Every structure is written in structure tokens, then in C-alpha cells.
# Entry
Amino acid sequence: MSEGVERNTRAIEGTVVTDFADRMSYGGYLDLGTLLAAQRPLSDPEHHDELLFIIQHQTTELWLKLVLHELGAACRLLRDDQLAPALKCIARVKHIQKTLTEQWSVLATLTPAEYAQFRGVLGNASGFQSAQYRAVEFTLGNKNAAMLRVFGAEPAAHELVRAALEAPSLYDEFLGMLARSGYPIPAEILERDVTKAWTFTPELVPLFADIYADPQAHWAAYETCEELVDLEDNFQLWRFRHLKTVERIIGFKTGTGGSSGVPFLQRALQLTFFPELFAVRTEIGR
# Structure
């Protein structure tokens, strides 16, 4: 019989390992000593809410690292025509996106008065300078070579963003897979300069209209289209939540990195990843 609970105390089972003098521990495996020492508030005296601000952004960067890991795998799998495992990677990214969007509600507990007391220690630090965020955008097709200038002083960050700029996007890999599967993807699309931002290509809309007209006959392509729509939907929700959180905390002040702040974030909502997959919805049922 298992050991129970007495006086609101659960007994430690005899088989539970408690001596880690020469064993791998939870903290050792996760390198928690390094991770939990990475929050170093700069305000003096230290402001209570600066820790929230730091952890919010550090956890975002950890999730972005996993998003890049999964999107990179999805791209490679699509290139090898392994659609099912690629969709598994995309499904995981979608769950991460939901977590990232919900996370804004935690930062939104920071009031304008509280943030104002330590905002000055950020200097010109800004989320605009997140190399991983930019690499995610590039991997999804919103490429902009001018962004490389932001990372000129950080070789590793510059390389990460440059590699994402020069690699085919997730959409490029999907269209390549469709072409190899017999779908009529124009050659100029397959041979395009992948360092340029994807722009709306009307020639693709009839192709997607055919796929949506008969989902059963084109199930793999149809399912993937909908997964990509989910990705963009989630990304736009994240962008919008970011905008509203910034507006809530600093109003229409300029950003610490020099941007116009809210107006700059509003323009990001006009960016798109898979425009044909939204345009085709106008054609369905006509």
C-alpha cells in the first residue's frame, strides 16, 4: 500500500531519489542556476515591477526559440515531401502562439505609472531588436533586408536573421511541395528571389480556388492551407495584442528604440504572410 497523507503532509515514498551528489537533477538538467540568474534589474533602487518586464520578454524569447526550431523543421520536412510531420510542427507552433498572445495579459497588469519609474533604464532597448522575432517573420515570408542593419553589432544575431532572409520561407517550401505533387505552380514563383518579401500573386488564387472547391480530392493541400491560415490568424492576434498592451501602458509615446510606437505597430497589422489564402475566400461559392 502506498504511503498516504497525515496531518496534511504527504510522506516521501521510499523510492524517491533525494541524494543528487553524483546524479543528474532537475535543476542541473535545465541549468536553472544560469536561467534564474539571468534576470538582472537595472533600476536603482530596484523597482518591484522591472522583474515582470524582464521575465515577460525573456520567456517570449524562449518560446520564439522553440517556434524557430519547429518552423525550421517544418520547412525541411516540406522540402522532403514529408507533409504529416511538417503539419505536426506547425500544430505545435500554433499552440505556442496562443501562449504568447495570452502572455500579454500579464504585462498588461503593469500600469503607466509603474512602467515610467524604470523605463529610463532600458535606454534604446526595444523588442524591435529581437533577432528571433525577426527570424520568425522572415521564415513566414515577411522579409526585409534593411532589418539586418539593426543587428550589425551582434554577429550571432546578424547571422540568424541573415540565414532566415536567404532561406526559402515556409510558404515557398509549401508551394514547392505542391509543384512536385503535380499542381500547376508557375515557374517564376518557384524560381523567385526568396530574399524578397512575398507579395500577393493573383495567379495562385485560381489554384487555391480549385483546392477549396473539392477538399476531399485535395485533402493534403487543403488541410495545409488551413493550417497556414491559422498561423497567420494567430500571428495577427499577437501583433494586435502587442499594440493594445503598448497603448495601454505608454499611450502614444515614442518607442524606446526610436519608433513612433503605436502607429508603427498599427502598420505591422497590414503585413501578410499568405495573402492568396485569404483572397481565395472571396472566390469560394461564386
Summary: The radius of gyration is 23 Å. The mean pLDDT is 96. DSSP finds 13 helices and two strands in the chain. The first helix runs from residue 26 to 30.
